[in-house]
């Protein structure tokens, strides 16, 4: 069984016991977290695709550690104007292990568009 989740503005395809690095989550190492923005659940039969999320579906994960990414250098320069700015950045990250995928529920139905409803009335 697999799922597509959204966290930190990015989407990840995960399965049970996967270890992945995501944007920092507000939990300490060893804590369990529940990721509720599940966009798709598949593996047993036809996949359930949400619009935008699958209701009742969640992914349970355990936070392994809080870490920081590699340092990057941000350098801005305007030539012939003596303008130079140098800055650095290290992104804060969380390493998580997926412990369970709960795929109960059905995909949310998209609301019908008003324009289509008005045309049928005429």
TrEMBL record:
Keywords: Ribonucleoprotein, Ribosomal protein, RNA-binding, rRNA-binding
PROSITE patterns associated with the record: RIBOSOMAL_L21
SUPFAM superfamilies named in the record: L21p-like
GO CC, any one term: ribosome
Quaternary structure and interacting proteins, as annotated: Part of the 50S ribosomal subunit. Contacts protein L20.
HAMAP family in alphabetical order: Ribosomal_bL21 (MF_01363)
Function per UniProt: This protein binds to 23S rRNA in the presence of protein L20.
Family indicated by similarity: Belongs to the bacterial ribosomal protein bL21 family.
Protein name, as recorded: Large ribosomal subunit protein bL21
Naturally occurring in which organism (per UniProt): Fodinicurvata halophila
Gene this protein is translated from: rplU
